Amino acid sequence: MVLFLLLIIVAMVLGLIGAVVHGLLFLLILGIVLFVADLAYLGRRWRRSGRRPVR
Fold first, then answer.
1. What is the pLDDT confidence band of residue 48, given thresholds at 50, 70 and 90?
2. pLDDT at 54
3. So what's the pLDDT on residue 50?
4. C-alpha angle 24/25/30, rounded to 5°?
5. Do residues 7 and 34 lie in contact, with contact meaning Cβ atoms separated by under 8 Å?
6. What integer pLDDT is reported at residue 49 of this predicted model?
7. Distance (Å) of CA 45 to CA 2, 16, 32
8. List of long-range contacts for 36-42, beta carbons under 8 Å, 24+ apart
9. Residue pLDDT, tens place only, 29-40
10. pLDDT tens figures, 14-34
11. Rg of the Cα trace of the chain?
């Protein structure tokens, strides 16, 4: 969960810098891509943890 929160913070900082600083649009795009990848990671982790092995 710490990795998820760290990646969310990094994505928000990159997106903010990319939106504010003129000419750094690629940082905004990189922040958005990182945010989407982080949400996919969280969804996969929640899906996997929901299944329990049957004994």
1. low
2. 66
3. 59
4. 105
5. yes
6. 64
7. 13, 27, 20
8. 37/7, 38/4, 38/7, 38/8, 38/11, 41/4, 41/7, 42/4
9. 888 898 899 889
10. 888 888 888 888 888 888 898
11. 15
Contacts of 28 (CB under 8 A, 6+ apart): 14, 15, 18, 19
Length of the chain: 55
Give the span between the Cα atoms of 22 and 15, in whole angstroms. Answer: 12
Tokens of 27: 């940082």
Q: How far apart are CA 14 and CA 11, in angstroms?
A: 5
Q: Domain ranges in the chain?
A: 2-47
pLDDT on residue 53: 61
Dihedral angle of Cα 15, 18, 21, 25, to the nearest 10 degrees: -160
